[in-house]
């Protein structure tokens, strides 16, 4: 797959973008609501690695919100073809979790807190506000982001007052790191991939938005996803954080209005199809990378 640096956000209703967070354990006490409407299907090896909060990035919060195991479709140890027919069967219709299709343990070893601080501490990173229509950008040294801004989400903060490190990456400075990332091997014919890399605190996330298809992989931590098909606009306020939406709106949704949900852990990759609405919530301090197909 040809992969370049790049952002997401084309085609979304305004050009969303994310928010901010820090070290520490998982985010407690937000999943008290009813049952989700459905879970995202899984494809690949069964089982999972559990939470890899990882050295220095904090660790887990919530037990019991993982996706159930799936039957293997791609046998462990085989190399699936780039345009594997099973991938194309769902690529245009539904999100899926892929398991066991890549090994990013070498990349993960480079993404510990200490390694990233040593390599990039003095470099500037660009933060975006965590609202659906995210235009404000703030540049800070990576070390300042990690040591001062990377905190658990304030549940009372507005999206426009919450900074998130995701995307807007400097691919010259961070190129040597991103070259170690193994992207998902499947692609939609005619597309290439563009990476967005991020690190964010527990309880942080991006509120509902949509754009083109792509993948999201968690390197450390766990990420909860909420998804709706393109024809089902979610109930949300564009300046409300995912955490606030989860606390205030989610519990009021009748079962038929609930999103598809899943938790993505290290070793798993979520594929989201074109124009699907989605919101994210980092259950732990998380390191993550998306590959946008366009
Ligand atoms: O990983 C995240 O928190 C944001 C991901 C996202 O919304 C996206 O890839 O479009």
UniProtKB/TrEMBL annotation:
Segments forming domain JmjC: 160-294
Stretches with biased composition (Gly residues): 1-32, 45-61
A GO term from the CC aspect: nucleus
Region (Disordered): 1-61
Entry superkingdom: Eukaryota
GO MF terms held by the record: cis-regulatory region sequence-specific DNA binding
Pfam families to which the protein is assigned, alphabetical: Cupin_8
Family matches, as PANTHER family: ARGININE DEMETHYLASE AND LYSYL-HYDROXYLASE JMJD, JMJC DOMAIN-CONTAINING PROTEIN 8
Protein's recorded name: Jumonji domain containing 8
Organism lineage string: Eukaryota, Metazoa, Chordata, Craniata, Vertebrata
């Amino acid at each position: 797959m040809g992969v370049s640096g790049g952002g997401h956000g084309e085609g979304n209703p305004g050009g969303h973008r994310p928010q901010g967070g820090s070290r520490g354990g998982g985010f407690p006490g937000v999943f008290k609501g009813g049952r989700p409407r459905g879970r995202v299907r899984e494809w690949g090896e069964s089982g999972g690695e559990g939470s890899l909060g990882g050295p220095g990035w904090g660790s887990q919060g919530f037990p019991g919100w993982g996706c159930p195991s799936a039957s293997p479709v791609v046998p462990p140890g085989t190399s699936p073809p780039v345009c594997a027919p099973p991938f194309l069967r769902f690529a245009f219709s539904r999100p899926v979790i892929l398991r066991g299709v890549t090994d990013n343990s070498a990349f993960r070893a480079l993404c510990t807190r200490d390694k990233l601080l040593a390599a990039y501490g003095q470099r500037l990173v660009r933060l975006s506000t965590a609202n659906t229509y995210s235009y404000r950008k703030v540049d800070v040294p990576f070390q300042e982001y990690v040591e001062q801004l990377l905190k658990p989400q304030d549940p009372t903060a507005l999206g426009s007052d919450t900074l998130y490190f995701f995307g807007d990456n400097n691919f010259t400075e961070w190129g040597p790191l991103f070259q170690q990332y193994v992207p998902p091997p499947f692609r939609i014919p005619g597309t290439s991939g563009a990476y967005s890399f991020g690190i964010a605190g527990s309880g942080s996330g991006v509120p509902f938005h949509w754009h083109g298809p792509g993948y999201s992989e968690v390197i450390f931590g766990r990420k909860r996803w909420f998804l709706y098909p393109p024809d089902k606009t979610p109930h949300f306020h564009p300046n409300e954080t995912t955490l606030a939406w989860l606390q205030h709106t989610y519990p009021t949704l009748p079962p038929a209005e609930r999103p598809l949900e899943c938790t993505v852990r290290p070793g798993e990759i979520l594929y989201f199809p074109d124009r699907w609405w989605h919101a994210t919530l980092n259950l732990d301090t998380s390191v993550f990378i998306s590959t946008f197909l366009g």
